[in-house]
Each structure stands twice: as C-alpha cells, then as structure tokens.
C-alpha cells in the first residue's frame, strides 16, 4: 500500500487524496492511472513517430522494360493472333506461301546442330524420344485446344507452346472487350473447341510458334526448317510418315542409333525469310503436315536454334558444352528458357549473379534479365524450389499474363489462371517485389543481407532521394549490414504501404485456375484447381503440402494457400462424384 500510495502521489492529480482511501481503493486508482498512462504514452509515441516520408508514389516495379529488338527491321512486326472463333470461308483466297531462300543445311552444320541438342554421345532411347513426336491436338473431348504429347521428353517445349496458345485463347491481344470476355465465355471448359474453333487451331498454333521464334531471333532473319531421318533424304520433301507408325518408329530408331554413335543422323532443309509474318505463314502451312509428323517438335527446336544462331545460343549458357536435351530426353533449363523468353540462359532467378567475391575473377551466371527480355508472357514454377535446389525469380513468378508451366521431375505440366486480374500484383506486392530485386542486386548471399555501404545505391534505385539516407542508416544499419526483412518493412513504409508481408494481406482470397497435362500415357487430362490464400501455415489447418510436389510447388508462389483439385476431363474425371482432393 505504501508503494502504491507513493506512485499515486507522484502521478495522480493534486485533487486526489489517498490518505482517506482504503488499500482496495488505492489499488483501483492505481490501475486507472496506469491505463491512462498507457493511452497517453501510445498517443505520445504516435506523435513522436515521424510522418511517412513524402516520397512520390512508386512507379510500376522495375520488372523490366517492354521487350525491344533494336537490331530488327522496324517493319518486321509480329502479326496479331487470329481470333480463335475465326473461320476461313471456302471462297476466301489462300495467300501465296512465301518461299524465301531455300536451303539444305550442310552435313557439318547438321552435326554441330545435333551435338548442341543431344551432346556428343547421347543414349539411343533419349534421342529416339525426339524423333517420333510432332505437334498434335488432344483427341479428348473438352481438351481439343490442348497439345497431345505421345512421348516423354519434349515436355519443356510442349508446355511453353501450350502457354502461348492459351494466351491467345483467354486473353487474345490483351485489348478490347473481346479479350475481356474470352475467359468468361469458356467457363469451366477453357480448352474445349467452341463452335467452329477447330478450323482455327492451325492458325493459333502457328502464331504461338511464330511468337517464340520472333523472341529468339535477335535480327530480322528467321529460319523455318524441316528435319528428317538421314536414311531417307527424300522424306524431307515427300509425304510425312504418321507418328507412332511402324515406319516412323523404324526411322527414328535408325537415326537415334546414328546420333548416339557420333554421326549426324538427320537431314535439315528449309527456308530463310526476313519477316516474321512470312515465317508464321510457313509454319501454318506445315501444321497439318510435317509439324505434325515424327520430327515436328524437333524441327521447330532446330528452327529456333538456327534463327537465334547456334553461337549465340552457346553464349547464352553458363556452360556452352551443356546439351539442350539431357537424360531420359528431358529438356535442360537452357532449352526451357529459350522457349519461354528467347534466351538459352541457365537459371530461373532474376538478372545475373557473380559466383565469387571479386567480379574480375568470379564466374557470371545468367538468369532472366528483365532489362533485356522484358516481363515473360508465360511464367515458370519449379518442383526444385521447395527442395531448396533453386529459387525462381519474381519475373517468372509473376508473368505478364497468368500462364505458368510447372516443372516436375518426370514431366512439365501447364497451369493457367482464367482471369488476368488474378495475376496482377497489389501495390504492396509491387513495392516488395521492386525492393527485393534491388536488394538481391546488392546482397552478399542469397538475398538475406547486404553491406551498409550499398544503402545509398539501393535508395537511389528505389527512387528515394539522398536526403533520406541518414534516417535510413539509423533505422536499418546494424553492425555494418542490412537485413532484408528490415529493408522490406522500411521501404514499404516509405511508400505508404503496410509493412506486413504482401502474401498475408491477400488472406481469404480465392483463385481458380486449371492444370492441363497432355502426356500419353496416361492420356490428356484437365483439372480445376482452387487456391484459398491464407496467412496460416496449412499444416496447422490440416492441409499441408508435405509429400505432395504439386501443392509444394504452388506454395512457392502462394505461400500457405489451401489447394483443392477437381478432375474435369481425362484421367480421374470418372471419380468426379467423389468430390475434390485436398492437397
């Protein structure tokens, strides 16, 4: 009671007389004063808290400038994608097929091309997977716009091509009400042919292939080539064998044996053209012939490599001796990146990194350079990320349109969000993404800490004036280093954003997207995937991803999301009455 009394005398108003109070009344009065002090202290603390810096609202995050091609002819522009609903009238005249400059690739260059793709001495089975597979559409009802992959191996080509097809189906040119309504029209059948769309599939596929060719070629010189087994040179110009037929299998086996022994095993013929519109027309004419034939996928890969030029492709890679196709016929990351962004870089992080403390003696490793290639139109997630083998950068994590390939150990599936708005970043996420890129560019390790000497550079990159450097040093620098979490929170406050992690601010939002797998066996399939975003670890809510590679991969993009999958067509759809599967 004496202690309480002294406290009340020191802090209470002069009118308060504690001498006539009981011990219980003194305790009650002390509690009331304590509450008043707490409220007043909080108000005082708020008053002392510096107002947010008057920094201009951030520009869109520096994820890369729009893709430019300074070495291309200004008149060489990618034609708009034909509408999926467009149907060519019978009376409509066919455009003349451009011939360009015809060529037969010399045997020495064919051998160089084969070694760039397969390496010096690949396994026969690995090469054979690529010699009997073409571009064909799924025969399964409800997935007619999906590509049908009859062999394992070329997944890293099929998924990006599928991405550009879906981009055209759901978003068109990205402008106008027609693009806005395309997704709503399709509902839960995003890959189904509607009306006369089947007639437009060749044109849309050709546009997807031409888009990838356009991004890969640094100049206005494009190559569209056809690959055929060397044992049948006339096959390059004659009728194409049916994929999977005994004749096609025998030719593939013979060529694969030659390639594995160090010979070229192939003949390559084609056209050189100077306009991507001409290349697209050549590809459209070939969709129902040799592109659908046994070497159709390999022919397109060779077209991309020759258009980019083989020496440039090797310069893209961290190790120029790495073959583009590895064990079991799987695509290397270099080949996947070549299909997605037009550069055969070896990594999936943003920008470039030096291995070693001294750039003059270190080793430069290359990822997705947003300043050069812009924002990818098709994104990428990897099963390897939850295993800590790599970290996918923000450019692949949040592509220009919500299409994504998911890379798994045995295949490369394709996921896509039907609504473009679902892929857009909140203001908080934009600031966080921008800050993360800047911090990583100056980090000492994998992006968790940076030296205090880099703080001025980082503030300048964020667009914050040097006048705030002293305050930033007081707030952020601890023993000459800066931690990422401190930098993230500080940057968000400067721009008037909540300093909580951006992922937690979307809690409760639901996203619906689709997972398509065109590999046969087991056969094409389409699934609907529902994500409910959360800031609670799903393991605590009974919905963790332990042991499930698909859910774990999604969690690298949407942490803690609860994932539910519903089969729509193909494998598993016969059990649709059983309800959803929670991953």
Summarize the structure.
Helices cover 37% and strands 13% of the residues. It has helices at 2-11, 23-48, 107-118, 124-128, 155-171, 176-186, 201-216, 246-260, 276-286, 296-308, 310-316, 333-341, 370-373, 394-397, 427-442, 455-462, 469-476, 484-494, 502-505, 549-555; strands at 101-104, 222-229, 266-273, 352-355, 363-366, 379-382, 403-407, 412-416, 449-451, 481-483, 510-517, 525-532, 562-570, 581-582.
Describe the fold and architecture.
The protein is an alpha+beta fold and 583 residues long. Helix content is 37%, strand content 13%. A seven-stranded mixed β-sheet has the order 6-7-8-11-12-13-14. Strands 1-3-2 form a three-stranded antiparallel β-sheet. Helix 7 (201-216) packs across helix 9 and helix 10 packs across helix 11 (310-316). The N and C termini lie far apart (60 Å).
- Rg, rounded, reads 30 Å
Overall 3D shape: globular
The counted number of beta strands is: 14
Strand content bin: 5-15%
Mean pLDDT: 78
Low-confidence stretches: 1-15, 37-55, 57-61, 174-180, 233-238, 575-583
| Main sheet strand line-up | 6-7-8-11-12-13-14
Features:
583 residues; 20 helices; seven-stranded mixed beta sheet; alpha+beta; disordered C terminus
Question: Topology of this protein?
Answer:
Blueprint (H helix, E strand, L loop, with lengths): L1 H10 L11 H26 L52 E4 L2 H12 L5 H5 L26 H17 L4 H11 L14 H16 L5 E8 L16 H15 L5 E8 L2 H11 L9 H13 L1 H7 L16 H9 L10 E4 L7 E4 L3 H4 L5 E4 L11 H4 L5 E5 L4 E5 L10 H16 L6 E3 L3 H8 L6 H8 L4 E3 H11 L7 H4 L4 E8 L7 E8 L16 H7 L6 E9 L10 E2 L1
